[in-house]
Fold this protein.
Amino acid sequence: MPISSKINKTGLVIYALFLVELLVFFIFKKQLDFIVAPIVFTVCGLAIAYYPLVKEPLSDAGNRAHQKPNKYIVYLALAIVSLSFCLWAHFIFINNPIDIKKSDIIPYINEVYVKRFINNEWVYAKAPGLGYGNWTPNYLPFHWFPFVLAKVLQIDFRWIPFVAYLLSVFIYAKQLLKQAHSAINITGKLLLPFVILFFIYFKQTSELAHTVELLIASYYFLLSIFINNNSLGGRGFSLTATLLSRYVVIFYLPVALLIEWLSNRKQAILQVVFVLVAVSICYIIPFLSRDWSIFTEGAKSYDIATLGEWDGQDWQPKTDNPFQLFQGLGFASWIYLLSNAPLPARVDLHKHIMFVAIIISIVCLAYIVLKKHKTVKPQFLHLLALKTLLTIVFAFALVPYNYLFWSSIVISITIVSNYKLVDEN
């Protein structure tokens, strides 16, 4: 008897929101300009975050058993697609050699962090360069330590973020295969992370070639995956990785702890202990306890870099708007134009606005959690909080670099994957 398919309207809406989020971010942000684009992108991200409160996902369990795909075929298909992206990445890396004139990120990870660690030197000793004079290195361990492996194996550092992302995709696929999915639905869901990777390759090649942000995005992707399947160990690892890399996840923690406390207090305590022990082992004991000032001193480098970006690039005429602030993302450009104060005062004003926006978001999320924790599954509340806070934090980033937003966009994959696009009868 033939199996008929029809579009699931609930799933169609969130897939459409995801598509709009990608199109605005990768293609239309400059056409929409710095006024409209941040609004559309931020609203779209928040809509994806809150959609499960309006339309809770329905299981695919009703599909016929023989429609469930063979996992070995799925893994083979993933391997073929991954190999294709691997070859493309190789082409990008060859044509975009690491160059400190284009970005200092990878050169300084190599020269300051990795070489010092391998040579048993103090990683966080002051270093010259970057136009800061002597500065305290400000990357936390999970931002640089994985590249020790690249140094030991003598491979291009940029393969580490790529491999990390592929590993997160395979873990994502493994979790999907544990659930009941029809072949057509699981195919659509498995394509989502590759769609993002395609857009990064195609539209943000320079960011891929000269930053390590795909590694950070992989950590956040893993966190969303382990939230979705309620893996205590997985969440502990990914929380540690995000805290010890681009640590904006810290704003999510109060809401996450509230959700856990209301749903499973024992698990909440175990999660806190896991993360505290892991952070102590990976950062506090070997690094921070040796010099308690390295975190705050390192943060000063970010302040100096921010002022430099707000002052514009060296190659820009002084009359032009700062390049990085006017790429169509974030609200920093608004503060830059609306305030006539000196640059340091404008930056401080934006910091205060960002802080207020974050506090308001946390309070609103806490209220939603208290109202909905008995009727909404904990994982949906966690994903709501994580996506919301990343969307808000990056929307008000002091310097809205394109690559920062990757960590927010990958969370959408996990939220969208909870919905089926097609019903089969």
Q: What stands out?
A: Confidence is low (pLDDT under 50) at residues 61-66. The chain is about 65% helix and 0% strand. The two ends are 10 Å apart (CA to CA). Residues 29 and 328 are 5 Å apart (CA to CA).
